[in-house]
Amino acid sequence: MLFGGFNSSRTITELTGSRETFFSEAKLNYNFGMAFRFEFANILFIQPEVYFTRKGGLANAFRVNPTDTFNQQEVSARSIDLPIMFGLRFFHSDAFCLRFYGGPVVSYLIDQNVNVDKNGLPITFDDIRARTHAFSAQVGAGFDIRRFTFDVRYEYGLSAMHRHSDFRTRYSLISFTLGIKLF
User: Fold this and answer.
1) DSSP character string of 57-106
2) Which of 110, 114, 107 is CA-nearest to residue 11?
3) Whole-number Å distance between alpha carbons of 44 and 128
4) Lower Cβ count inside 10 Å, N or C end of the chain?
């Protein structure tokens, strides 16, 4: 199966040594890739996937302490994501199928862009520890009509993609994809 679509993603910034969390404005991005669906007992399936995605968020300002203010203009990344979805199929026929699924995702970061100021001065990318991979979880639903698929998913970052001495950042996104079954 080949698929492509768009996602609305935002960054989740957590302050070091605090329970404060800040959410950025959502940014519209894209994804495309392929999947293989292995069906069992006409109701269960496993769906390994590989896809390319862009994720990130815009404009987020937060204060760490009375003297330090951060202004995040943009934090984004391009990655190759490798999810394995485990799911259930309902109302399955040759013409229609409703699916619910979830599973883990490993993201390998290809490119990252971090544009953050601290007290009006830019933080260099060298001051931010960027990871080469991150983990997240997805849940979703979709339906098949003949050879076409439509899916809606929510992904929540379980590990930070960027770390600074004052904060760490991970991603949250909702994606919408349209696909075609090749066989």
Assistant:
1) EEEEEEESSSS-EEEEEEEEEEEEEEEEEEEEEES--SSEEEEEEEEEEE
2) 114
3) 42
4) C
Domains contained in the chain, number: 1
Domain hosting residue 104, numbered range: 2-180
Q: How far apart are CA 177 and CA 4, in angstroms?
A: 5
173: number of Cβ within 10 Å: 24
What pLDDT was estimated at residue 66? Answer: 73
The percent of residues in the chain predicted with pLDDT above 90, rounded, is 54
CB atoms within 10 A of CB 176: 14
Taking phi over 0 as left and psi of -120 to 50 as alpha, with beta for the rest, 146 belongs to left
Q: Categorise residue 67: left if φ over 0, alpha if ψ from -120 to 50, beta otherwise.
A: alpha
Measured distance CA(93)–CA(146) in Å, rounded: 9
Residue of 34 and 92 predicted with greater confidence: 34
Give 181's DSSP letter. -
Q: Where residue 35 sits, what CATH number does that domain have?
A: 2.40.160
Least confident of 7-11, 43-47, 57-61: 57-61
